[in-house]
Amino acid sequence: MFILSSTYTAPLEEVDALRPAHIAWLKEQHVAGHFHGWGRKTPPTGGVIFAVGDRAAIEALAQTDPYIKAGVAQAEIIEFTPAFLAPGLEETLSA
Questions:
Q1: Residue 64 φ/ψ, nearest 5 degrees
Q2: Whole-angstrom Cα distance, residue 57 to residue 55?
Q3: By the number of CB atoms within 10 A of the CB, which of 43, 50, 55, 63 ranks highest?
């Protein structure tokens, strides 16, 4: 399992101009089975995505994010092996 943690590197106005394309990308990756949840950080300094797959695929996928491609954000990919998931999350977050 992976957490993709993005940090905005441009003013929020520039990020928000690309938001519709970014949201469409998130939804496409969900339908493809890669992303199982996402949201903006509070305050809005970036975002977090829960992803499944192998590391190379997730790293390549992150580079297709409209925010990353436009240079308004950078991504950190954190891999972890859950030791515990609350009931209901096992199926949602497992690959």
A1: -95, -5
A2: 5
A3: 50
Indicate the pTM of the whole model.
0.90
Question: Closest Cα partner for 7 from 78, 92, 94, 95?
Answer: 78
Q: Report the distance separating Cα 77 and Cα 60, nearest Å.
A: 11
Q: pLDDT by residue (tens digit) across 53-87?
A: 999 999 999 999 999 999 999 999 999 988 888 88
Would you state the pLDDT for residue 94?
A: 60
For 36, the token pair is: 């199982």
**First vs last C-alpha separation in the chain:** 8
Handedness of CA 54, 55, 61, 66 (dihedral sign): positive
The beta strand positions in the chain, using DSSP E, are 2-8, 35-40, 46-51, 73-79
Q: Rounded to an integer, what is the distance from CA 52 to the centroid of its chain?
A: 10
